[in-house]
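Troubleshooting log. The previous structure file for this entry was overwritten by mistake, so regenerating from the original sequence record. Sequence copied from the archived sheet and checked twice against the printout by T.R.
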Amino acid sequence: MRKTFTCILLAAILTTACQNRLNHNGALGAVEEAFYNQYPNAWDVEWEHGAGNTIVMDFKDGLYEREAWFLTDGTWVQTRTELPLYEVPKNVIDAVLGSLGAGWYVEEAEFFETSSLPEKYYLLDCEKVQSRQEARIQVLPDGTLLNLPGTGGNTGGNTGGNTGGNTGGNTGSGDIFAAAKITFATMFPNVQRVEWEMEYGKVNAEFYHERHEKEAWFLTDGTWLSTQTELAVNELPQTLVNVVMATLGNGWHIDDAKHTLSASAPNEYYTLECENNYTDRETRLRITPGGTIL
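Regenerated output below.
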C-alpha cells in the first residue's frame, strides 16, 4: 500500500511538471529549455511576466519553494529559495542580530543566487518582540551586511546625504544603492524625491518624473535594466487601443496602462490590464509600439 501511494504521488508530480511544460502556448520560448536544464527536478511550476522584461518561474525543487528569473532569451538572472531558519548559517544570524541589538529575532529567511554581484546573499525578515518593529536585512554568507540595520532596504529620499544633488544618501560602503544612484542621476536629472529599495537582488527606484509615476530597475553595479511609466488610458496611441480591442472583442475596456523601456528585447512595450464589462474577467496584454502582441 505504501509503495502504491508513493508511485501515485510520484506520477502526480511528474504529470504536473509535464503539464507546466505545455500550458504556456509557446510564450516561454527559450526560457523553458533553460529553466529545465537548470532545474530538471522542478515540479508544480507556474510562470508570469516579471519586472525588467523577465519571466518568473515559481516552482518546487525537492523540499524547497523557489522562484527563478530569466530574460526572454533564456539567460538566467537569479533564483530565490525559501529557507527554514535552521539552514541559515549561525554566523549570518549572529551578524544580523548583533547589528540590530537586543529584543530582535529572525522570522523568515530567503537565499538568493544571482548572475550579478553580490552572487549569493541571505535576506532575513526580522522583528522586535515588544515594539513589533520590522527590518529586512541582506547579508553575505560571510556575515557582511549589505544594508544598514533598520533601513529595511529603503534609504528614503535622495536630496540629502554627503554627495548632495540627486545621487543622495551616503554613497559609502554601507550604501548598496550607491552605483545605481549615480546612474539614476544621469538618466533623471532634477528628480527631488526617490524611494529606493532592494527587491529580489535588483535595485528599484520609485519616483515622480515629467508628470508621471515611474519605476526604474538597476543592477547593484549601476547597470540600468528598465524603466516603467504609469500612463492614463487616454495617453495610449489610438492604433494600439484599436489592436487590443480587435483582439479581445466586444465588452472589454483597458483598465490600467504602463509603458516600459528595457535594456533587453523587447526594448519597448506597453503592459495593459484589461477587464470585461459583463463578466469581470481580467487579462493582461503586452504590446509593442508597432502593434505586435507579445
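The first strand starts at residue 42 and ends at 50. Archived copy saved in two places this time.
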